[in-house]
Design a protein that fits this description.
The structure holds two protein chains of two kinds. Chain A is an alpha/beta fold. Chain A is built from twelve helices and 15 strands. Chain B has one domain: Rossmann fold. Chain B has twelve helices and seven strands. Classes of the chains: A alpha/beta, B alpha/beta.
Chain lengths: ~350, ~280
């Protein structure tokens, strides 16, 4: 079925999860991800699946932990303050090598913050989804189509590497409607078996244990080293990035998610004025597309984010001093207009011309 | 009689009267001398054996002294974070409804940090089995005040005794959960005498059988001791437990929908709500 349908971003994530074979969803109400849970509540009973409204985000993520341990495809979703509560469980999932998908439809922070769109959980998603030494793949969709596609992909990546995976969206993407072609549905019964899962040994094998505790320091060390070897594999094989008009660009904007949509319009407007602008859009925030940044031939980079400057640290790390890097951001739920971003491009362009003319 | 005959005679009269349950693996536990975890875990394993469900059982061991019981039980096991075992159990049971899912929790885990998960798994009527060890102290971290520590009980973090004015009152878990419609069975037992061990075994068996039969949420509270952190001999600990714990936490059945003549928790809830059509299952209009 390749019919285009008009869908809200939050609902597209939910529908794509169902098509990826997810039949267990554990939620807790929070704005602006509510439509996702509501969609699951409507659809799951009809598919013989589980929609369960947990008593808290903490309980929801631990239900996800249990369902993942039982070997089924499962998901939870929330928005920024709720994700903070889930980080304990996500750390346990990482430590126990459990696959699962966690959706963050971001809103402004810190604290209760706002209910408007934001990208202020970049640090949390890429650096600190809980205590301990671990990373997890973070997908940053920029369109409703990508919300569907990356959710579908997230389940495959989670299962392949036995890791929790985060979809880092925001309130703008979650609430907006766009035409989308849904991925072909998978029958969960046809998914590969998970021999490590705790489903009851049926007398046919030794007992399986799902666990993140190692009282022996050497064992915990070895467990982390093994997991980091998997991370190297993920860094090799799962990096996703889009480059747009960067081949001859003097000024390249680095932006992800909703900010990248605005940046793209600004790039086009700059090109119309004869300014060679381009866009580098990370689709995976971890692993970060550092090689794509290094490969740029730009004279200047501008990082555009809906926060006070978080991803810019990864851009700086990747660029390693190769380009001058500046930041343009708005936070608190304020979305910059393409014209504002264009003004920034023009300002940098003029500064570059002055420099060259001198 | 020659030596060989003696051996032959011994062999012919050998009969195993006490063996390790199959569901309990032949490994050394990490429990302190005199601790009752060993007794209770053995009872759980015996029940799993008797019901013949080891191969379809998934156990959950959250943070506490018994966290490493994932190494002791022969069934599939999941270690859970502090307090979250009922949520993890819910995730497993909703994914694998035909599996037997139990959680083995201590008092700090179940009644303090995990109280929300405990109450909500119970009120949802999850068809799971909870074994609750109440020894009125945090054992693993070295003897701090627990939600079930008794008034004036001295612990590492209540060095002058639990002060009711500042630390409030101990929680009686069975009494609290008995008010919830989702609950099928609650019993408080102890394992300080051969007789009480037999009663405890019956209760644990009932709690597992309820799950097999789909009767609903079942919890057995085992009033226990912690000789190490109570700083008593095992014998004195039992005496202290009988004198103090059992006074505050009386043994007995707190809810048993089957004994009341109902097939399951839902049927009992309907009867309990008689005269209130909304609660009876007709719902809001």
């Amino acid at each position: 079925m390749t019919r285009k349908v008009l869908m809200k971003g939050n609902e597209a994530i939910a529908e794509a999860a169902l098509r990826a074979g997810c039949r267990h969803f554990f939620g807790y109400p929070i704005t602006p991800q509510t439509e996702l849970a509501a969609y699951m509540a409507r659809k799951m009973p009809k598919l013989g699946g589980t929609y369960l409204q947990a008593e808290s985000e903490i309980a929801a993520v631990n239900m996800l932990y249990g369902a993942a341990a039982a070997g089924v495809r499962a998901m939870t979703s929330s928005s920024s303050p709720g994700i903070s509560l889930k980080t304990e469980g996500i750390s346990y999932m990482a430590g126990a090598d459990l696959p699962g998908v966690i959706v963050n439809v971001q809103r402004g922070g810190p604290g209760l913050g706002s209910i408007q769109p934001s990208q202020s959980d970049y640090f949390q998603a890429t650096r600190a989804m809980g205590h301990g030494d671990f990373y997890l793949p973070v997908f940053a969709p920029s369109t409703v189509q990508e919300m569907a596609d990356l959710t579908f992909t997230a389940f495959n990546v989670a299962d392949e590497y036995r890791t929790p995976v985060v979809i880092l969206a925001d309130g703008m993407l979650g609430q907006m409607m766009e035409p989308v072609i849904m991925p072909e549905a998978i029958d969960p019964a046809t998914l590969p078996p998970k021999p490590w899962a705790t489903r009851g040994h049926e007398g046919a094998r030794a007992h399986n244990i799902i666990n993140s505790l190692h009282l022996d320091a050497q064992k915990l060390y070895e467990d982390n080293v093994r997991r980091f070897a998997t991370y190297e594999q993920i860094k090799r094989d799962e990096v996703r990035v889009e480059t747009y008009r960067t081949e001859d660009a003097d000024i390249v904007i680095c932006a992800f998610g909703a900010a990248a949509r605005i940046a793209r319009s600004a790039v086009n407007a700059a090109r119309e004025r004869g300014i060679k602008a381009g866009l580098l859009r990370p689709i995976t925030l971890w692993p970060y597309p550092a090689d794509a940044v290094k490969a740029l031939h730009a004279k200047a980079l501008v990082v555009v984010e809906l926060n006070m400057g978080q991803m810019i640290e990864d851009v700086r790390l990747a660029a390693d001093g190769a380009f001058p890097i500046s930041f343009f951001g708005r936070c608190g739920g304020i979305i910059p207009t393409p014209d504002e971003v264009l003004d920034e491009i023009v300002r940098i362009h003029e500064a570059m011309e002055d420099e060259e003319g001198r | 009689m020659k030596r060989g005959d003696e051996v032959a005679m011994t062999q012919s009269t050998e009969k195993a009267v006490f063996t390790r349950p199959h569901a309990l693996l032949p490994v050394v536990t990490n429990y302190c001398p005199g601790c009752t975890h060993g007794i209770v875990e053995r009872l759980v394993a015996e029940v799993i054996d008797e019901l013949g469900v080891e191969g379809k059982t998934v156990g959950i061991s959250p943070v506490g002294c018994s966290v490493t019981s994932y190494d002791f039980f022969g069934c599939d096991m999941i270690e859970a974070s502090h307090g979250r075992a009922p949520a993890v159990a819910t995730g497993v049971k909703r994914s694998l409804p035909d599996r037997i899912v139990f959680a083995y929790q201590g008092d700090g885990d179940l009644a303090s940090i995990g109280m929300a998960e405990t109450v909500h798994a119970a009120t949802r009527g999850e068809n799971i089995t909870i074994i609750f060890i109440n020894n009125a102290i945090y054992g693993m971290t070295g003897g701090q005040m627990a939600p079930t520590s008794l008034p004036h009980q001295v612990t590492q973090t209540s060095p002058y005794g639990r002060d009711l004015e500042t630390a409030g009152y101990p929680i009686r878990v069975c009494e609290l959960l008995a008010t919830l419609d989702g609950v099928a069975y609650l019993e408080r037992v102890s394992v300080d005498t051969p007789k009480s061990v037999r009663t405890a075994k019956k209760a644990i068996r009932h709690a597992f059988k309820n799950q097999v039969d789909g009767v609903g949420y079942s919890l057995v509270e085992v009033v226990s001791t912690c000789p190490t952190n109570w700083k008593m001999t095992p014998e004195d600990a039992f005496a202290w437990m009988r004198e103090n714990m059992l006074t505050y936490y009386p043994l007995g059945v707190y809810k048993d929908v089957q004994a009341e003549g109902f097939a399951n928790a839902a049927e009992a809830a309907r009867a309990r709500a008689e005269g209130c059509p909304i609660a009876c299952g007709e719902g809001v209009r």
